[in-house]
User: What shape does this take?
Amino acid sequence: MAQNNPTTTPSSTANSTNSFMAAALDEAYAGISAQEGGPFGSVVVKDGIIVGRGHNQVLHNQDPTCHGEMQAIRDACNNLGTHDLSGCELYTTAEPCPMCLGAIMWANIKAVYYGCTRFDSADIGFRDDAFYQQLEGETTVVNLSEFDREACLELFHVYEQSNASRY
Ligand SMILES: [Zn+2]
Assistant: This one.
C-alpha cells in the first residue's frame, strides 16, 4: 500500500505565493494567453521537485479530458516512466473537478493543494459544482443506468482468472 502522508503544510501567505503554486499559476497564465482553455494550471511535485506540469488545453486539443491536472499527471507519468505517482503531491490553481479528482486517486497522489474553490469556478461560469452535486445525489446531469450486467460479468470472470495488475 502506497503511503504519502504529508507532515507539513506548504508555506504561503497572502503576500508570498508558495513557489509550487506560483509554477501552477505560470502554467495557467501561459494557457490563457495562448487561448488553449480555462484558467487552470497544475504541477506535480515529488521530493520537493516539480516532475510534471500542465494547463487546461481542452480547446487547443479539442479534448474535454485535457484539464490542467490531467495534463500535469500525464506529464509526470511520462517523465517518471510510471502510471503510479505514489509519493507525489499536486498543486493546482483551482479545486479539482470530479474527473480530475478521480485521476488523482487512480494515480495514488495523496495530497492536493488548490487555490480557487469549486464555487469560485462556478462564479466565472464553470460547471464543476453541478457535477459534484450529481455525485452527492442532489441533481442529475447525466443518466447513469446499470445495463446488460450478466454479459459484462462474464468478462470480469475471464479477467479474474488472470494475474494482471488491477489497472
Ligand atoms: Zn478537471
User: Anything to note?
Assistant: Residues 1-5 have pLDDT under 50 and may be disordered. Residues 19-33 form the longest helix (15 residues).
